Amino acid sequence: MFLESISDKKHIIQSVDVALSVLLEVSREPGQTLSALARNLGETKQKTLRMLRTMERRKFIQRAEDGGYNLGNAILVLGTSASTQIDLVKLASPVLETLGQKMNETVQIRIRDNTEALCIAKFEPSRDLRVHAVVGRRRPLHAGSSKILLAFLSDNLIARILPQTLDRITGNTITSHTALMRELMNIRKQGFCISHGEVSDQLVSVSVPIFAVDGSVLAALNVAAPAFRTQKSDLDRFVSLLTEAAKGISRGLGWVG
User: Fold this and answer.
1) Rounded to whole angstroms, how far apart are CA atoms 12 and 185?
2) What are phi and psi of 67, to 5 degrees?
3) How far is CA 234 from CA 198, 227, 243, in A?
4) What is the spatial distance between Cα 235 and Cα 125, in angstroms, rounded to a whole number?
5) Nearest-CA neighbor of 208 among 217, 221, 190, 195?
6) What is the pTM of this model?
7) 208-232 pLDDT per residue, tens
8) Nearest 5°: CA angle at 115, between 114 and 120?
């Protein structure tokens, strides 16, 4: 335990640690002055002021007319996003288990985290040969069923998100921007994405969108299975089950489309 704590300390960036302490202190007691914050945190006024000004520039902190500091508008964005993701996992967990048992395959929830798809929840069946999913694992957005997270974005945002060079993961990975945009238009039109061996030659996957209250795509509901035991009829069944489940999760999040 002692060795672990020493190792942890080696990876701490002190300035970030102090900035987060300042942010939490403002959250605990809004309206504190620079002097009060520095005193309560045991930091110098100069260092505390640097942290405050940096976060003020990024809208995480705002200074009141009386000189006190409060949380800024950027915190509302983080709070709303965190609350939605927590609600999403809470709503989706029993759905993932039900789906996974019906399909007897691995199902996941993925969200877009900037330029990547991030797994935030999963269910794996008990069968010996199955796809292994890892919460926290990231995938490129242009490959596999993660494309569903791109398909419903504006063309301008897609252009900003995608790198100039699309990495080839397998022989089936789309690496042409033109071909990818055609594929995204098709996904948007049909409402689901089917991927054959784009991330792994041996796998097929299906994903459908989960919608937020404003109608934007919040996440992807995905099933992945070994290609050798997945027929066209299985894919059709997966699309139907996933679509119905995703609608239920979306409605639970306030979507009324």
Assistant:
1) 44
2) 95, -5
3) 18, 11, 14
4) 17
5) 221
6) 0.69
7) 999 988 888 999 999 999 999 999 9
8) 65
